[in-house]
Amino acid sequence: MNTILKLEHIQKYYGNEGNITKAIKDISFSVEAGEFLGIMGASGSGKTTLLNCISTIDTVSAGHIFLEGADVTEIKPKALARFRRENLGFVFQDFNLLDTLTISENIALALAINKVPTGSVEPRILDIAEKLNISDILNKYPYQVSGGQKQRCACARAIINNPKLLLADEPTGALDSHSSQMLLSTIQSINEQLRATILMVTHDAFTASYASRILFLKDGEIFMELRKGNDSRSIFFDKILNVLTMIGGGQSHVC
Amino acid sequence: MYAKLVFRNAKRSVKDYLVYIVTMTICVTLFYSFLSISSSNYNPDIGTEYDFTLLSDGMKVAICMITLLLLFLIRFVNHYMLRRKQKEFAVQSIMGMEQKTIGRIFFAETLIMGIVSILIGIFFGVFCSQFITAMLLTAYGKPYEISWTLFPDTVLLTVAFFVLCFFVVGIFNTRAIQKTKIIDMLSADKENEPELKKSRFISGVVVLFELFTVWGLIIGIQKVFFYYDTRFALPVQLMFWGNILFPLLTLLWSIFCIIRKKKRECFIAGLLICSAWNAFTAASVAALTNKYYLSLGGGTLNQYLLFVLIDLLFFICALIYLISGLIVAWKEKSPEHRYREEALFFLGQIISKLNTTSKTMVIICITLVLAIFMFVAAPILTGWSSGYLDIRSMYDVQVYSKYNDVYEEKNLPHDSYEIITDFLAEHKIDTDYDCTFNLYLPEKDDFHNRQKYDFPITAISLSDYNTIREMLGYEQIFLGEDEFTTQWKSIATEEEKSSFLAEHTSVATDGGTLNLSEQSCYGEAMGETIYNAYTNILYVFPDNICKKLLPVIKNRYITTTENISYENARKLERLFTEEYPEQTESGVMYGIRFSTLQTNSTIANNFVLQAAMLYGAVVLMIICLTVLSLQQLLDAGQYKYRFSVLRKLGVEEKHISKLILKQLSVWFGLPIIVAIVIATVVINYFIQTISAEISAYIGFSTLMLQIGTTVGILVILLICYFISTWIIFRRSVNS
Lengths: 255, 735
What we know:
The structure holds 2 protein chains of 2 kinds. By secondary structure, chain A is of the alpha/beta class. Chain A has helices spanning 47-54, 77-87, 103-113, 118-132, 147-159, 177-193, 205-208, 233-247, 250-254; strands spanning 3-14, 21-32, 36-41, 62-67, 70-71, 88-91, 165-169, 198-201, 213-218, 221-227. Chain A has one domain (3-254): Rossmann fold (3-Layer(aba) Sandwich), CATH 3.40.50.300. By secondary structure, chain B is α+β, with helices and mostly antiparallel strands. Chain B has 4 domains: 1-191, no CATH class; 201-301; 334-390 and 601-735, no CATH class; 397-562, no CATH class. Chain B is 68% helix and 9% strand. In chain B, helix 21 runs antiparallel to helix 23 (700-734). Chain A binds chain B through residues 57, 78, 81-86, 88, 90, 92, 96-101, 105, 108-116, 118-119, 121-122, 141, 143, 157, and chain B through 192-196, 335-336, 338-345, 348-349, 351-352, 642, 644-653.
């Protein structure tokens, strides 16, 4: 398997001299093509900072991030936007859809920004809509559809350009449990059928159990790594819970 | 404690309040500077022959009326501030502060800002009032010097007016804050457009328009019934029928659309075209009445002007309403444009904004048209009236008579107005020239001819004519025996003169036929009263011929050594009107004019008119631009979110800047372009209707210069507003 994303000794500091907060102390890991990686951790563990660094929205203080061999940290600021739109797809907790556009236009915008020939825009939207089961709502506005539908639309927008890496930041954060389940199945099918590489940040064990590998962060470091392997999802879920119990305080504190 | 909070808040949020302070300062400056000349302490040196009170009363009323418009602006800016501070209010109420207190704190903050802007405004107002004084003294033809004085009564009035405004608006705001739910305050800046619903106001506008169209149709039918004559020239006939046909078409189209259940856009598009035609035919009424001397009466003309106005207003409403529809249709039709880079985003922004604010857009458009029209019309009207003044008031005293209602020859005027001679002697006013003269009808038979468009031209004897010329400092003229020449009003065009002279090389009189002299026409200004009613021309006949003619008009022109004072002029006017009233039993109309009185009232009226119109135009313009710019800044919260989405999708900063510029250009450009187009049509019509007067009293080059200056000021104002909005907008989107 070839490595699509590789992080080498990433560090991220905030603040100035004398008052430095180390959001990320030292993190290194790699993601294989077609993998579904989950990153878990409590609030303040640095997971969102990590995601922001990978997505080039934020810069690292030290270390290197390679996406398919290219060093992301070396890209000039002017070329960043182009890099993002050509290589990355985003799914956010609060959907980030534009209320002035219909669902189909929201998806089309991602294509248009990528300068896709106008003729192929509509067929591609119809194709992806069918896969994500949002064909009926294509002509509706975001405020006319449910949260789950909105998030599926956001997924469609994120993957329509076939990004090398799909970044999901708490995708189920704003959804009820039923919609979450539906969305996660969708993400899973994106991973399995469309062979998309996904990096998902979450603090919810159930959401994380859909991933094939999970990194647990604590205080800016990788605390533990968990692989699903051949386990069923429920066993994997229990394992995750165990790790979380361990992180949340640790035995030493209880005693 | 609260006072501390208020001051700290006010100090900290000066930047937030910048728009508010700037707008209020401009308002106060304008108010103070225009009002200062009506102050009782204001005594500019304009000479004894002028009376200043006439001006200041008119001025006060005009300024206060226009300033009421400012209330609207204050309300709008306050609304903007309220929206901006919602989140802060939310935090305060969650902490347990009562909403009543929050309202009061906000009121106190705005009051502090208001008082700051009143102080700055009055400071600038003192500077600006110098311009107004300069303008005033130039109007009276006096040199001016700059003086720095603060008028206590004007300051008091300004402070009182604005503080009252703040209190009125403040009460509304406190109420609004009390009524808002905490949850709504919290999510105020996250909120996207709630729903893209079409505003219902267009339905109301359509109903009103239909009602007026029915009225127009009834009036059209009435006019044809009472006034139509098949002998009218073709354009007049077309006008009569057009005023029935187009309203009828409008109504038929509406009925057709209702029966066939046509789409709303289609229906309104039809009405838009109809309203343009309606406006055209209604506007032709005034133009053709002037040209063909139709006897429709002032009431009818006003009615049709009202129809033109209604049609134009509807045209603007319908156009703005349809624009978003047009953009949607265009977007649907052309995928290659729709799917080109960020076009979708841009179109989405424009359409959603247009849909929710079409009413504001319409109001802004109409106000802009009004402002532009006032800007252009002010110099035309004042130029016209002061140009006319020069021509009218050529003699210190002029007495004139008219025989329009005299039907018996014995009733014609014969007096030589001795009452004036006595008055002047009594008040020791010396005269330089004094000329009492007759105007004659070339042929006696014309006496009973009273048709307006065929009114007889009168004649003056050569000696009287030469006396008047001498009075005015023109050269003497000579006529051979059996020769005549012509004298023309300045309003007469060259074509009119040449075609008349070509047709009238000789003229038949009761004293024999006369031939046109070699020097056939004179155009020096000689006043208005030397010509017969409805004519622009006067014959000059040899004295011996005039003796054989019927004198119909008796005039007397006097120039005095020194100017007659305002008081004496008024006194003599009263005496004269008692003895020679405007309407006499015999039918003769008498009148007296003094250059002193004419100049005084014309200058005062002109000044009030010009100042009020310019003030009004500037106020309207500022209101429009402020509202336009605040509309955009008000939504900065939403835009920030939307542009951040674009950024996350990978759109470069350069494209985002371009999008912002494009969006603001459309937002400012659309109402301004529509307003300019409509205003150009209206002004063109206005200038066409009075083109003769413009060329006679102002001159087209002067007019163009004035219009050019006006356009220049407008463009500068627009650029200032545009750039500042752009900067603030970019900052709030990028922050």
